[in-house]
Amino acid sequence: MIPQGFELIPNPLGTAPGFKGFIPNGERQIACVAMPGPPREMNPMFFDQVIPWLAQLIGHDDFSRSEYSTFLIPESKLEELWQIYFFQRDAVGHPVPGSEDKFVSCRWK
User: Fold this and answer.
1) Are residues 11 and 34 in contact, defined by beta-carbon separation less than 8 angstroms?
2) H or E element: which one contains 79?
3) Cα separations (Å) of 51 from 3, 36, 44, 45, 91?
4) How many alpha carbons lie under 13 Å from residue 105 in its C-beta half-sphere?
5) Can you give the pLDDT at residue 26?
6) Whether 82 contacts 99, CB under 8 Å
7) pTM given for the model
8) Cβ distance 99 to 88 under 8 Å?
9) Does 51 reside within a domain?
10) DSSP letters along 9-77, please?
């Protein structure tokens, strides 16, 4: 049983479904999500169904990011990956046409 006006979130790994919807609060609508507690069931539901739903609500494009975090990757490997993926350079290091307008800044925390 789910609250009236809410949408069912299927649970592919268990019997307890989740639900998502909005709770009115004055003039605002508050997004509400409920999922089963076992991480084995909850994690796939969250990553496969809830995050895309939330991203759609705020108009987020799944292919753009403004910040990346890395752990335990040497700087030389990161530089190589940035060259390939962010600056779209070929195996020799030449820019792929149309990729010259990208800008990346880095900061250490």
Assistant:
1) no
2) helix 75-81
3) 21, 16, 10, 9, 34
4) 2
5) 93
6) no
7) 0.55
8) yes
9) yes
10) E--TTSS--EEEEEEEETTEEEEEEE--S-HHHHHHHIIIIIHHHHHHHHT--TT--S-----S--HHH
**Contact, 88 vs 96, CB < 8 A?**
yes
pLDDT in tens, 48-93: 899 889 888 887 665 555 566 777 877 777 777 766 666 555 555 5
Between CA 11 and CA 3 the distance in angstroms is 17
Instruction: Print the domain residue range for 18.
Output: 7-58
Question: 11 and 54, same structural domain?
Answer: yes
Type of residue at 12:
P
Residue 49 and residue 15 in one domain:
yes
Q: How many domains does the chain have?
A: 2
pLDDT of residue 1: 80
Residue 2, domain member (yes or no): no
Q: Are residues 69 and 109 in the same domain?
A: yes
Give the Cα separation of 26 and 63 in Å (integer).
34
